[in-house]
Design goal:
The complex is a heterodimer. Chain A is an all-alpha fold. Chain B is mainly α. Chain B folds into two domains: 163 residues, no CATH class; 103 residues, no CATH class. In chain B, α8 packs antiparallel against α10. Classes of the chains: A mainly alpha, B mainly alpha.
Chain lengths: 331, 275
């Protein structure tokens, strides 16, 4: 046995390092849950021992590769020990019940602003088309109009509102509406937020115009009440989701326009995290909206039930969004 | 030289990570893309067996949506910042502040992937004229960001506050000095041990390691004679080079480590001798 103190240093601690290496490997491969209680107890102790070994080795040992080994081992162990406390499913549940509602509550001002713009668009669109039905074509894109226009017969318009579809058709429309249209708008809202936020409000306003034009078309045939009863069961959730996505975009814009006490890049990062939470909330809301749209709307035609769904969703979201933040979520 | 990022543990010990280089990241991305395709293809083939037409289309779109938007998020949440492809390439996502990688960060960096890559590409493909050129330029610009960012972050990393780093497997070499069984028969003077520095010590370490593992001893004689000449060792000593070198290694390391304790770190022979 050599008399070098660095050799003794290694000999005394090497078993601990090897043990930590095995534990880290197991935790990386199969998760912390796969460790026994005793191993979990040992993990932080071995980690601190190794980190302290690293400091000592850097200062006293000249063995080739030893400090590098200890640094890599400590770095991996650091990542294993500092992983978030909650697992995947608990994390998802927590996101749905805490993180996302809190994000919605904190952004209620911006959500209100986008919603206001949206509703303004609806009113303006309705007013303009009611005054001059020829305006309809300039507000409703061909793809969305789906053949419905000022020239359609009242009967065909009514048929759309009260049609029943089979399960397969339901699923198709579910998929098409959720993925093709709504998500695009939501994601578009957020990305446009980078461009100072003005396009977000424009997008919200123009979507409002489309809805307003639809409403005016149906109103001209005496179907005003029917069209809103058809639109709103899912529309409450869907329009709110678009408002939420818009709020995410606006928050992102506010981040770099008005950084406040932070540096501009820090402010953008904080805003980005808030925007990501809002985007996740919007996706969840759109999912529910599409569920209602695809399944409930085509199978339930009774006006009272439709009105009931509108009331329930409106009250639910109002409670979630308007009630003040209850628990602070660390940024 | 690869760029590194240093994070202080709660014990205030600096830990350095090497930042992932772009070829590794692109490779990892393609591996994950392949995994996504395979994961998508399996259920789709099963689906095709039990149904066709509209239902197949609808379910296919739903699966596609989930895969496209949530594969990376779910994989990184599950693997603490490692997807399958990243694990293969030895990469990991970490929080830039050294803290835990929160789910919010994972969501943010992967939602931004959508805006950096998928949305502009698909819109550019389906759009027309100037708009699709602009979108394509945005895609290229977003792809170039990591090359110019000091920390190799893409836009999503910047927004989420994350970094992609290399996590090589640690490997502990056997200690050359540990297995020395010789009792010191030679005595080196302080002057003789002040010729070389840490760099030369490590070269000698490597040489001895190789000699011990594979019995490659051809270079040893040359090295031994050069060292003997340099430090002015007695030319009459005709002992086997391996014996001389191992003893010299141990004496040299003991000397340098002792000086280290006194705060003198001699990196190489080019550094001025301590006076």
């Amino acid at each position: 046995m050599s008399t070098l103190h660095s050799v003794k240093f290694r000999a005394e601690r090497e078993d601990g390092w090897r043990h930590l290496e095995a534990l880290v490997e197991a935790a990386e491969q199969r998760g912390l849950d796969s460790l026994t209680a005793e191993q979990l107890h040992l993990l932080p102790i071995l980690y601190r021992m190794t980190v302290s070994s690293l400091s000592v080795a850097r200062a006293t040992s000249l063995e080739r590769g030893l400090p590098e080994y200890l640094e890599r081992l400590s770095a991996r162990a650091h990542l294993v020990l500092h992983r978030p406390r909650v697992g995947l499913w608990r994390g998802l549940a927590q996101a749905l019940t805490e993180t996302l509602p809190n994000a919605l509550r904190e952004a209620r001002g911006l959500i209100g602003l986008t919603l206001f713009t949206l509703v303004l668009g609806v009113l303006v669109g309705h007013g303009l088309v009611a005054a001059d039905p020829a305006e309809y074509d300039s507000f409703v894109p061909e793809a969305l109009a789906n053949g419905r226009g000022p020239t359609s017969s009242t009967e065909s318009l009514r048929a759309v509102l009260y049609s029943k579809e089979s399960l397969t058709e339901t699923l198709v429309s579910f998929a098409a509406f959720l993925f093709a249209h709504n998500s695009q708008i939501a994601l578009g809202c957020i990305s446009l937020g980078i461009l100072a936020g003005v396009p977000v409000l424009l997008l919200a306003f123009s979507n409002g115009l489309t809805v307003g034009a639809f409403s005016a078309l149906y109103a001209s045939r005496g179907l005003l009440g029917d069209v809103w009863l058809w639109l709103l069961p899912h529309g409450v959730t869907e329009l709110l989701a678009i408002a939420v996505a818009g709020a995410a975009g606006l928050g992102l814009a506010a981040g770099w326009l008005f950084p406040g006490p932070h540096s501009r890049s820090d402010a953008l990062r904080l805003a980005g995290r808030r925007a990501a939470r809002l985007a996740a909330a919007a996706v969840v809301m759109l999912f529910f909206a599409a569920l209602i749209e695809g399944i409930v709307r085509q199978t339930v035609t009774d006006p009272w039930v439709r009105a009931g769904i509108i009331a329930v969703t409106a009250i639910f979201w109002a409670v979630v969004i308007v009630r003040g933040p209850t628990r602070r979520v660390p940024a | 030289m690869r760029r590194t990022v240093t994070i202080y543990t709660s014990e205030h010990v600096p830990l350095a990570w090497e930042l992932a280089a772009w070829p590794e990241r692109v490779t990892a991305f393609f591996l994950d893309f392949l995994a996504q395709l395979l994961l998508l293809l399996g259920p789709l083939i099963l689906l095709a067996l039990v149904s066709q037409g509209a239902l197949f289309n609808a379910l296919g779109v739903v699966f596609g949506f989930v895969m496209r938007n949530f594969y990376f998020t779910l994989a990184e949440l599950r693997g603490n910042g490692q997807t399958w492809g990243k694990r293969r390439c030895g990469l990991q996502v970490i929080a830039a502040d050294g803290g835990p990688l929160e789910p919010g960060m994972v969501f943010a960096r992967n939602l931004t992937r959508e805006l950096e890559c998928y949305v502009p590409l698909s819109a550019a493909a389906s759009g027309s004229g100037t708009m699709s050129v602009l979108l394509f330029l945005w895609f290229v610009a977003a792809g170039l960001v990591p090359l110019f960012s000091r920390t190799g972050q893409r836009l999503g990393d910047m927004i989420a506050g994350t970094l992609v780093v290399c996590v090589p497997k640690p490997s502990l070499l056997p200690d050359v000095a540990k297995s020395l069984q010789l009792k010191a028969t030679r005595h080196f003077t302080a002057d003789q041990l002040s010729v070389y520095g840490i760099k030369e010590l490590h070269v000698l370490d490597e040489l001895l390691q190789r000699a011990r593992e594979k019995d490659q001893s051809e270079g040893l004689a040359v090295v031994a004679s050069r060292i003997r000449k340099k430090i002015g060792w007695d030319p009459a000593d005709m002992s086997p080079p391996l014996d001389f070198l191992t003893e010299f290694y141990e004496a040299q390391r003991a000397h340098l480590e002792t000086r280290l304790l006194f705060g003198e770190r001699r990196e190489s022979k080019r550094q001025d001798k301590p006076t």
